[in-house]
Amino acid sequence: MSGGAVLAIDQGTTGSSALVVSARGEVVGRSYREFMQHFPRPGWVEHDAEEIFAVTARVAREAIADANTEVAAVGITNQRETVVVWDPATLRPLHRAIVWQDRRTSALCRELRAAGHEETVRRRTGLLLDPYFSGTKLRWLFETDPGLAARAESGDLAVGTIDAWLVARLTAGAVHATDPTNASRTLLFDLDEGGWNDDLLALMGVPRRILPEVRPSSGDFGVTDGGVLGVEVPIAGVAGDQQAALYGQGCWEAGTGKCTYGTGAFLLFNTGSTRVASDHGLLTTAACNAMGGPAFALEGSIFVAGAAIQWLRDGLGILEDAAESEAMALSLSGNDGVYLVPAFTGLGAPHWKPDARGAITGLTRGTTREHLVRAALEAMAYGTQEILAAMERDSGVRSTGLRVDGGAAKNDWLLDFMAGVLGVPVSRPKMVETTALGAAGLAGLHAGVWRSPEEFSRVFAAGRSFEPRIDAGERETLIEGWQRAVQGVLAASGLSR
To answer: How many CB atoms sit inside 10 A of residue 234's CB?
Structure first.
């Protein structure tokens, strides 16, 4: 090890974290702050990009001060499909950021599918025509705001996902760049070509010159401006949150996979240098190999996971802190037939029904708040099981276990239940913040904090494994109950399965 430390910036959907990770694998400084969520209309979700930057810069400075050590590099990981439009001269946003959860482009996606574009989009990008992704958000912006469209045509604005926005602000406008893992979530990036595609740009009405340059995930993204963070440090690693977690979990080879539980839940399965097309509602996306170079992965996304617990806390007030959920679930011997399908922003993989809405089934006079909390936790396990089964069918490989991380992965009851529902061991690392860890690894590898990926991996201690303890019959009954609940949601929403 060459020494030094890495500042890992983890810009998420509800808040920004900053961790300073030493070369010996210790978190020596940290800070976290939330920011406002904006819901101007049903199904619309927006963020104030300026607030995101201010909060992110603040936690970064606080983490550096807390660490009181030399920082050798900065790594950035971020909520992915959220898109920002800004003035490249003033570095001020020109519209609120449209968040990955936003469903305003559902009708546009239907129009594009009806026009026969989905097969081309799927073949080039590995994605579906869904409001989840950035491209249709940009087309919507330019179609609804002629002023923005004119500025885009003249090259008088910049667009990018959150990573590109932070890189631009942290370097005081010196760098406009992104990485393949974020670029691959825009509907504008050709996976085989490894770059922006002119046909896709034309389909979404996005001029090439306003897009960021695509650079390797472990590489050069400029130097932070001293007036922003108080230090001038190279930004040496960038990756979307889920691919960063895949890297941080050490899933560098084909056949390894992880699931991250945050606002949503995201399961990625590394397929190495082979791009695997899905026949079961999954996505193909860019990932990182051990050196931070290009690789591929299958991905399945659950739009609402930890956000369901947040809803129970903030929306219904039936618990004061998310940490209470474990004890509340433990207080019951079973779910008594109560299921929560948290399709608050539609159903993701493997269904891809953006217009579905959530439901609670199996309610009786005996249903308590504990049942609702347990149902929200169980939903994470059932959603994971659906996606993992689809990945096994696509890849032809039977899973031997799943690595998990994120906030909900701290819940022992959930992981024990999940192992039973999946029928395979579930492993949690000692450091569950693997999204930030992956960003640190990608940056530290390029900056020489760690001499090799293996050295990076060795400094982080192993965690705990949960073995399946539910018999096959009970597992089947639980999964059948979930499937009936999902079918009921689809029927109530007027959608076919």
So the answer is: 18
Single out the residue of 280, 283, 257 nearest to residue 269, CA to CA: 257
DSSP-derived 3-state class of residue 107: helix
Strand 359-361 versus strand 235-240 pairing type: unpaired
Per-residue pLDDT of 284-305, as tens digits, reads: 999 999 999 999 999 998 989 9
Reduced to 3 states, what is the DSSP secondary structure of residue 30?
strand
Helix H or strand E encompassing 260: strand 257-261
Are 127 and 133 a contacting pair, CB within 8 Å? yes
Q: How far apart are CA 196 and CA 189, in angstroms?
A: 4
Q: Is residue 453 reached through a cis peptide bond, with omega within 30 degrees of 0 on the bond before it?
A: no
Beta bridge partners of 103: none
Instruction: For tokens 């001269």, name the residue.
Output: 89
DSSP states of 285-337 as a string?
A: EEEE-TTS-EEEEEEEEES-SHHHHHHHHHTS-S-S-TTHHHHHHHT-SS-TT
Candidates 429, 10, 34; CA nearest to 242 is 10
pLDDT digits (tens, 9 = 90+) for 34-78: 999 999 999 899 999 999 999 999 999 999 999 989 999 999 999
Half-sphere exposure for 61 (CA within 13 Å, toward CB):
14
Q: Letter for the amino acid at 222?
A: G
Q: SS3 letters for 467-493? A: CCCCCHHHHHHHHHHHHHHHHHHHHHC
Spatial distance between the Cα atoms of 198 and 186, rounded to a whole number of angstroms: 13
Question: Average pLDDT, stretch 80-85?
Answer: 96
The C-alpha atoms of residue 241 and residue 12 are separated, in whole angstroms, by 8
Alpha helices in 86-240 (DSSP H): 106-114, 118-125, 134-144, 146-154, 162-170, 180-183, 198-204, 226-229
